[in-house]
Design a protein that fits this description.
The protein has about 325 residues and is an alpha/beta fold. Helix content is about 25%, strand content about 25%. The chain is built from nine helices and 14 strands. A hairpin with a 5-residue loop joins β5 and β6 (about 130-135). α2 packs across α3.
Length: about 325
């Protein structure tokens, strides 16, 4: 996807193919800005780093910088393999790896779902094998899964019956641990559509997206390739998981309609508030963006009560349709 002419290097950018929370509403960036301010408060720092992993074209960073409260100095880093877009805020440092030894907020929105994973399928004989794929998308069974991958499956996604599949999330666990390790102190957050161990999808979630539609996952660089994330496997000690709807509610994003009385006293304000409520409702909707999970990983800070967006993620909410909305 990052090769010559690959999906993520195309001039139009991913936003022309699908919408994330970042593209859905500026309320998302404003909420992350509040989380950044609270992180700075917990660190007792008036200048903090903001690291956006999988920054795309810098949309989230730009939105956060526009919403940062006065008096808080921010050193923003965009971690992305695509070239730096023209006209980006000059304060943003564009890099291919997260900076090491910084303190602040590391935020990875829909990054881990694009970290490649191997697919395993249980054959008719009960043997779990890697799935091999050709450039045209056709598949065939490969060698039996063994070693660390087999150990990961036994712990996090045990094979069920012949014909079922699992996505071996070990590379994502390692990628997340490496990203968290770059923080000296602060908070690392991964936001993605995900599932938990008690509710793994029996046939996997690998799929593709192009031009606003779900397409077969052909590995030719022509479309986005994505699979839900086993975020509970990624979590390091002290981490907490919660639904996006809960995280955003605690950060002040509410889908409640404004009072009708406002329509009489200030019609323009009522229309603006009504539009914001609609955007907030999309960000927190069940069966949609609200079903995303947030993995909150404090670094050098106590976990209980360290941030106002802590809490348990109910396992019953872990399953559902792919919440990534089409255009």
């Amino acid at each position: 996807m990052y090769g010559p002419g690959g999906f993520y290097l195309r001039p139009e950018g991913p936003a022309r193919h699908f919408r994330t929370s970042v593209h859905a509403s500026p309320l998302f960036a404003a909420a992350v800005a509040r989380l950044l301010a609270r992180t700075a408060e917990r660190l007792d720092m008036d200048e903090v780093a903001l690291v956006d992993i999988g920054a795309g074209r810098g949309e989230l960073l730009s939105g956060i910088l526009a919403a940062v409260p006065d008096g808080l100095a921010v050193r923003p880093y965009a971690v992305e393999r695509a070239p730096r877009p023209a006209g980006l805020d000059p304060r943003i440092q564009w890099c291919t790896e997260p900076p090491a030894g910084v303190s602040g907020l590391l935020f990875a929105n829909e990054w881990l779902d694009n970290v490649p994973v191997d697919i395993a399928e249980t054959g008719p004989d009960g043997v779990v094998r890697y799935v091999l794929v050709r450039p045209d998308g056709s598949e065939e069974p490969g060698e039996p899964v063994d070693g660390p991958d087999a150990e990961w499956l036994a712990r996090w996604w045990a094979p069920v019956r012949p014909g079922t599949r699992a996505e071996i999330g070990r590379p994502r666990d390692e990628a997340w641990a490496a990203a968290v390790a770059t923080l000296e102190r602060g908070l690392a957050v991964a936001v993605d559509y995900a599932h938990l161990r008690d509710a793994r999808p029996p046939f996997g979630t690998l799929t593709g997206f192009r031009a606003g539609r779900e397409v077969p996952p052909v590995p030719d660089g022509g479309s986005d390739l994505t699979a839900h994330v086993a975020l509970d496997a990624c979590a390091l000690p002290g981490a907490e998981l919660l639904a996006q709807r809960e995280a955003l509610h605690r950060l002040g994003v509410s889908g409640e309609r404004p009072p009708l009385s406002l329509a009489t006293t200030d019609p323009a304000a009522y229309v603006r508030a009504l539009a914001a409520a609609g955007e907030a409702a999309e960000l927190t909707a069940r069966g949609g963006l609200g079903d995303f999970q947030w993995l909150m990983q404090p670094v050098g800070l106590p976990a209980p009560g360290a941030f106002p967006v802590s809490g348990a993620f109910p396992a019953a909410e872990a399953r559902g349709p792919d919440p990534r909305p089409a255009l």
